[in-house]
Amino acid sequence: MPKLEQFEIKKYWQIFSGLKPENNKVNHDQVLPILFNSKLDSSVLNKIWFLADIDEDDDLDFEEFVICMRLIFDMVNKNISSVPDELPDWLVPGSKVSMIKERRQRQQREAADLPSEKPPDVDWYMAPEDLSVYEKLLDSSERSTDGTVTFPSLSSVIRSKFYNIGSSDMNKVWNLVNPKQKASIDKDPAFYFIHCLRQCNDVGAKIPDHLPRAMADICNKESVSYDLNDYKSDTKRQESRSSPNGNTTGNSTTAASSGASSDQEISALQTELAQLDSELSRVQSETSRLPAENNPAVVRKQLEGLLKYKRDRMQQANSRSRVGRPVNSNSVRDDLDSIEEQMTVLESYLDNKKQELQQLKMEIQSTR
């Protein structure tokens, strides 16, 4: 960007004088025709005005006007591709150097005061509609004959759906759900892979360092091989180990079928356990975030305090009645009955919630 020349300053002075400045300043409305004729985007013009208005009084004196005009002409003539975030030193007037320093210091303080936003954690609970979406994504991937899916096949589908995910994030999540570094993964780890990347894409969730225990067990389990060649070789080995009387030591077909069925049942139970663990974590997290006024223990304490207050009033009323002063005891008794009824409802609600939590814990224990 070439520095200011004397002829430029004279040209800008002629333009500035033609705008009929008041108190040696022009306002935004006076400069608006020049801004409009530049054909620059409004966001660009707003940034130029902000940089030029060094004293931030919404008006431009001649020195500030020179800055504004120079930046506009540089953008129009393609001398610069974008407006700089800060004015270059050669474009800052000597009389306004201290103002520029104050502005930069203030911006630095404001930036330091801004709280850093912590990315949310991945919520591992997968709703039925989520599973339906993941099933479609998995079906659109090229899968192996044993039903597993490779990283290149699944990642190409993910890239076409989640645009905020980079290659490094995909590699990290793949290693997370594929701890044994196998060439391909089963359906459940593939769902975890898609679910984690989806939350990273949609809400900027932080990629965790490890999976929940139940999910990690699923990802670490050995896959059942359905390769016919492997099956035949196993059959030959069984025959080679036959007893002297010609009988084989076991039925390979029955064993393979039983093993596959057993592994499928274990996989289903582990998936259900992972879902229950995620649901329990979600419920406990939501419960911990309840405001104090919705906490049953706090509400009960408040109602007990109110009940004590009403009883004290009742005793005071009785003492006054003994000295001949009239009091409406029916109203006080109605209040007491109402409070006791509310406490009964609250205790019933609390008991129900405890039973639900206990039942959920029992279900998790039974699946382990």
Automatic annotation (TrEMBL):
It comes from the Eukaryota. SMART domains: EH. Its main location: membrane. It is a peripheral membrane protein. Residues 232-297, 314-336 are annotated as: Disordered. Residues 263-273, 315-331 have a biased composition (Polar residues). Keywords: Actin-binding, Calcium, Cell membrane, Coiled coil, Cytoplasm, Cytoskeleton, Endocytosis, Endosome, Membrane, Metal-binding, Repeat. Residues 242-262 have a biased composition (Low complexity). It is found in: Cell membrane; Cytoplasm, Cytoskeleton, Actin patch; Endosome membrane. SUPFAM superfamilies: EF-hand. Residues 8-98, 130-222 form the EH domain. GO terms for cellular component: actin cortical patch; endosome membrane; plasma membrane. Residues 336-363 form a coiled coil. One of its GO terms (molecular function) is calcium ion binding. One of its GO terms (biological process) is endocytosis. Residues 40-75 form the EF-hand domain. Belongs to the END3 family. This is Actin cytoskeleton-regulatory complex protein END3.
